[in-house]
Amino acid sequence: MKGRMGLNTRDLAYFHDLVELKNYTEVANKFSVSQPTITVAIKRLENEFGAQLIKRDYIHNRLVVTRAGVLLFQRAQQILQSLDLAYSEVQNADSSMIRFGLPPIIGTMWFPLIAQELLNKGLLSHIQSIEAGSDQLLEKLKQGKIDVALLGSIRPLQEKKLDTFLLAVHPFRVVVSRKHSLVSKKHISFAELKGERFVTFTNNFVHPQALASYSKYAGFRPQIAFSTPTLSLIKELVNADLGISLLVDDAVKPQDHLCCLELDDPLPERFNMSLVVRKNFLPNKIQKEFISILFELKGLIETKDC
Q1: Which parts of the chain register pLDDT below 50?
Q2: Which tens digits make up the pLDDT trace of 235-265?
Q3: pLDDT at position 152, please?
Q4: Sign, Cα dihedral of 265, 243, 177, 203
Q5: Which tens digit of pLDDT belongs to each residue from 31-89?
Q6: The HTH lysR-type domain covers which part of the protein (predicted)?
């Protein structure tokens, strides 16, 4: 593939990985080509830009990236990421499937509110659901590996490459078992939880970020008893009085037999749920209809909370 100056994007990919790996043999093995192929590619780029990009430090037996090389590496990252995104979007342009990012906690709490309508309109069978933490799904969305996502964040999302639409804002609560000594309290400051064991989500979810913020404000490091990506397991462990948790309020249902305590700390952290798509994303007919139904969640959640 040639650019306006005769630039070969494969050469850029070789150069990008050579800067990262600092080893010609490793790069050649990664791309299943010969080492001279990598050497020739780097020379082509140096001739194209009229600057030395890679130098060999014979004293320390290592490769050194020049200032020109660093500048090209930064641009190469952007070019290769954009190219990967273009391939992904073009290949899925006429797909009837909707690649949908859905964190498990949002899937449990709010997605069921629109599931029946999606089923009635024949869209439910078109959804390819990718479940992971919001941080992971955010990266997949940027890379074009998913089309649309419902994401959680402790502050409203602001991303240059994404369009975000805030659908719901919910507070965090301290969740304890009915056997816990704190069960008689309805309000609590986070400082009172020093010494408690916490059961929480793994780090690619929103809740550990909120836990870190509240703990920092209270002036202590939380003792993590167990981390898991599974909401039901967190609630089971708390119910067994093996620890307490910090969860968004809607996560706990009456049938869970758990107690939720309101936090008095004046922190701005909330569970913000947003509908997120890439800027300039061109949805097909099926995707447009799906996204329009996702927008209905805002009104449905507000009605449910009243």
Answers
A1: 1-4
A2: 999 999 999 999 998 899 999 999 999 999 9
A3: 94
A4: positive
A5: 999 999 999 999 999 999 999 999 988 887 889 999 999 999 998 888 887 787 677 66
A6: 7-66
Look up tokens 């080509």; give the residue: 33
Strands 148-153 and 98-101: parallel
Cβ atoms of residues 102 and 129 within 8 Å: yes
Distance between terminal CA atoms of the chain?
57
Identity of residue 223: Q
In eight-state DSSP terms, residue 146 is -
Task: Indicate the CATH number of 9-91 among 3.40.50.150, 1.10.10.10, 3.30.70.260, 3.30.70.100.
Answer: 1.10.10.10
* β-strands 197-201, 223-228 pairing: parallel
Gyration radius of the chain over CA positions: 25
CB 286 within 8 A of CB 238: no
